[in-house]
Amino acid sequence: LNAKAKGKTREGAEEQLTTGDLLSNRKMFYLLKGAFPAVQINSEERVDTADQEAVSWDRSIPEDIKQKIQPKEVPAESVTVWIDPLDATQEYTEDLRQYVTTMVCVAVNGKPVIGVIHKPFSSYTAWAMVDGGSNVKARSSYNEKTPRIIVSRSHAGKVEQVARQTFGNKTVIIPAGGAGYKVLALLDVPEKNQEEADVYIHVTYIKKWDICAGNAVLRALGGHMTTLTGEEISYTGSDGNEGGLIASINMNHKALIEKLPDLEKTSHK
């Protein structure tokens, strides 16, 4: 792993950087940059131009995907790609591999339209394109009255207090690592190590490469990911989202937001 600290989060937690982060980042960045040189690519890890890697890619699209999507042309300058080469690095260093994903998101004019969430240790991949198909779907039912809420392992206590006040003491809080894993928890995912939840809530600052792919997948399936006050998250400009987030699918998203007014106050701390 060769894990080392690369800094601290706003909450003071140490951020880990591993060889896996760097190797995955190098491969993903140069593959995309070589194929689409005019497109803006934002990645969690810094790219060292002296360490450039030639990555070959024939650009052929698998037949099962080709049958589901409709190609669309957009100006290169309107496209931003967000990549997270290794989501849940902390859990990766703790050998909690079920939480680890790699993610790619394509945003057009700030709106997430293509999302890919890949679990490298089980080879499961979820992908979706807004108005273009997917290989994943929503579950058949969700509990709106006493939802199971999936949250960050490091912020579980903060969310639990407010959630129980809002939905009652029977509300189940699921602490988990990785934003990609948490989005998959809202969907019908045939993975034995994948927990299920009804709502995903994050109450502090979060980077856009952590959430763009999940946002795109949910949008494509008719779900929602917004700030805690219900604002759409724009994937242009700064690389951070200040307003926390709440994500759901096949639920009354607006009603959920109205039930959680106190959480927004904590999202900037």
UniProtKB/TrEMBL annotation:
<dbReference type="GO" id="GO:0016020">
    <property type="term" value="C:membrane"/>
</dbReference>
<feature type="binding site">
    <location>
        <position position="86"/>
    </location>
    <ligand>
        <name>Mg(2+)</name>
    </ligand>
</feature>
<feature type="binding site">
    <location>
        <position position="87"/>
    </location>
    <ligand>
        <name>Mg(2+)</name>
    </ligand>
</feature>
<keyword id="KW-0479">Metal-binding</keyword>
<dbReference type="GO" id="GO:0046872">
    <property type="term" value="F:metal ion binding"/>
</dbReference>
<feature type="binding site">
    <location>
        <position position="84"/>
    </location>
    <ligand>
        <name>Mg(2+)</name>
    </ligand>
</feature>
<comment type="pathway">
    <text>Polyol metabolism; myo-inositol biosynthesis; myo-inositol from D-glucose 6-phosphate: step 2/2.</text>
</comment>
<keyword id="KW-0812">Transmembrane</keyword>
<dbReference type="GO" id="GO:0052834">
    <property type="term" value="F:inositol monophosphate phosphatase activity"/>
</dbReference>
<keyword id="KW-1133">Transmembrane helix</keyword>
<feature type="binding site">
    <location>
        <position position="44"/>
    </location>
    <ligand>
        <name>Mg(2+)</name>
    </ligand>
</feature>
<dbReference type="Pfam" id="PF00459">
    <property type="entry name" value="Inositol_P"/>
</dbReference>
<keyword id="KW-0460">Magnesium</keyword>
<dbReference type="InterPro" id="IPR050725">
    <property type="entry name" value="CysQ/Inositol_MonoPase"/>
</dbReference>
<protein>
    <recommendedName>
        <fullName>inositol-phosphate phosphatase</fullName>
        <ecNumber>3.1.3.25</ecNumber>
    </recommendedName>
</protein>
<comment type="similarity">
    <text>Belongs to the inositol monophosphatase superfamily.</text>
</comment>
<dbReference type="GO" id="GO:0005794">
    <property type="term" value="C:Golgi apparatus"/>
</dbReference>
<dbReference type="InterPro" id="IPR000760">
    <property type="entry name" value="Inositol_monophosphatase-like"/>
</dbReference>
<dbReference type="GO" id="GO:0008254">
    <property type="term" value="F:3'-nucleotidase activity"/>
</dbReference>
<keyword id="KW-0472">Membrane</keyword>
<keyword id="KW-0378">Hydrolase</keyword>
<dbReference type="InterPro" id="IPR020550">
    <property type="entry name" value="Inositol_monophosphatase_CS"/>
</dbReference>
<dbReference type="GO" id="GO:0046854">
    <property type="term" value="P:phosphatidylinositol phosphate biosynthetic process"/>
</dbReference>
<feature type="binding site">
    <location>
        <position position="210"/>
    </location>
    <ligand>
        <name>Mg(2+)</name>
    </ligand>
</feature>
